[in-house]
Amino acid sequence: MKLRMERNVTQRVKKAKLHHHTPITKPADSEISVFEKHLERAMNGGKYPRILIIGSSPELRNLTAKMKLRTTVVADDLDVIERMAKLMKRKNENEQWLEGDILSLPLKENTFDVVFGDHVVSNLPPFSKEKFYKRMKEILKREGFAVIRSVIFSKTEKSFEGKISKHFRIVEKEFGEGGVFAGHFPIYFIRPK
What is the C-alpha separation between 187 and 137, in angstroms, rounded? Predict the structure, then answer.
């Protein structure tokens, strides 16, 4: 009886995790190339854009390090940023770290040319998402843009895009190639309205 009860509990926990939580996966090379394409667009004409990375994804940070761009990384915990830095292939001498919640950090309006986020929206509580989009729009320069990768399932896609569309124009929506979850990780290229 005890063994059966433990097995049922384990099965329920596994189902709950599959149903309610999607594990964070690192971006595939094809997904990084989407971010890179948009970053090169921002650098058109020899410009060196100011970048904000929300979260500590080493793959996105490698990209800005490769291009030697001034980058600000924001995460809830400096230890996480530091640990993720150890996974980077390149060190970015132009990278600044900020600890805190993107919603409450005193970032100046119209500061960043580009905002990158990987799984940021899916990690926000539902009641914070609207505030997040508004805040992201405030800190972006008017001609700036954001590239956001998030887990989205067909049931929530219209709701997700509707919330973004209140503050941003969805210019492009792309998917990386390959990988088990490739069809569930759209990468949105968005501009402030």
Answer: 17
